[in-house]
Write a structure and sequence with these properties.
alpha+beta; 6 helices; 26% strand; Aminopeptidase
Length: 167
């Protein structure tokens, strides 16, 4: 397995990975209306063009996971991390996160941020093991407040904002 920057030829596979990864969530965590959804093509294109879309690639060359990020002031925000269920537990998610951490440090971002499910036993704890901490609402920067509000409006609940300080 290796991590590389995504190319436009990866986009269809990334949507498939995202939908397959969503199958792991219970209906109470991820509403059925959101299960078949994936990131819009324009979002993937923007991230790819900015050098903020990485792919975990199998030895065969096929994408089996990805991470998409976007700048958010002095932070780099992780908008999506997905790995095919059959490739889970092999360190791909961790490798993708470490790639984003290296990128953020090289560009002198002060933090890496994300939002995630709080009660899902393999979600929030995964990020905590990597050094992310849950931010109380009073400490959330504007971009995280907006992400949480957008997620709530789309039907997601029990979400928390997390950050990894890089400075």
């Amino acid at each position: 397995m290796s991590i590389r920057l995504a190319t436009p030829r990866d986009f269809q596979a990334l949507g498939d990975i995202e939908r397959r990864a969503a199958e792991r969530f219970a209906p109470g965590d991820l509403p059925p209306a959101l299960r078949g959804a994936s990131l819009p093509l324009a979002t993937l294109q923007q991230a790819e063009q900015a050098g903020l879309l990485w792919v975990a690639q199998a030895e065969t060359g096929e994408p089996v996971g990805f991470l998409m990020a976007a700048p958010a002031g002095d932070a780099l925000h992780i908008g999506e991390v997905s790995v095919l269920p059959e490739h889970g537990g092999r360190g791909l998610g961790r490798a993708l996160i470490h790639t984003a951490i290296r990128h953020a440090r090289e560009r002198r971002y002060r933090a890496l941020t994300l939002t995630t499910f709080d009660p899902v036993p393999w979600n929030r704890p995964f990020y905590e093991r990597l050094g992310f901490v849950v931010l109380p609402a009073s400490e959330c920067p504007a971009h995280l407040v907006q992400h949480l509000a957008d997620e709530q409006a789309s039907g997601l609940s029990d979400r928390v904002a997390m950050a990894l300080r890089l400075d």
